[in-house]
């Protein structure tokens, strides 16, 4: 799931770069591209290193998906969402808030 999210963000960034290429200098554009590439590499390395143990109802397991989230973040649970809601829809709904970082839809089939 994180890979598709990163791919969508990358595609969106490329669209923005292409649209704004006329107003942004080539040097600034290359600087931003390099920063994005560096950030992506650093995040992948961090994600591979972390092992996050979880415990509930007497069971213990590791949850690697928690490593996808930034440290010291705050999470908001939104329940009773329709089946049409996906990561993109949720991201668009919260993207107007400057502190928004990412959204993830998870399903519980219990």
TrEMBL record:
InterPro entries: RBD_domain_sf, RBM42_RBP45_47-like. It comes from the Eukaryota. Signal peptide: none annotated. GO terms for molecular function: mRNA binding. Keywords: mRNA processing, RNA-binding. GO terms for biological process: mRNA processing. This is RRM domain-containing protein. It comes from Citrus unshiu (Satsuma mandarin). The lineage of its organism: Eukaryota, Viridiplantae, Streptophyta, Embryophyta, Tracheophyta.
């Amino acid at each position: 799931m994180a890979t598709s999210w990163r791919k969508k963000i990358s595609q969106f960034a490329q669209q923005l770069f292409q649209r704004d290429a006329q107003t942004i200098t080539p040097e600034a554009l290359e600087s931003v591209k390099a920063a994005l590439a560096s950030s992506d590499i650093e995040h992948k390395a961090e994600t591979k290193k972390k092992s996050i143990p979880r415990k509930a109802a007497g069971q213990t397991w590791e949850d690697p998906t928690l490593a996808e989230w930034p440290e010291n973040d705050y999470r908001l649970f939104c329940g009773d969402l329709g089946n049409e809601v996906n990561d993109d829809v949720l991201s668009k709904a919260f993207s107007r808030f400057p502190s928004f970082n990412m959204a993830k839809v998870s399903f519980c089939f219990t």
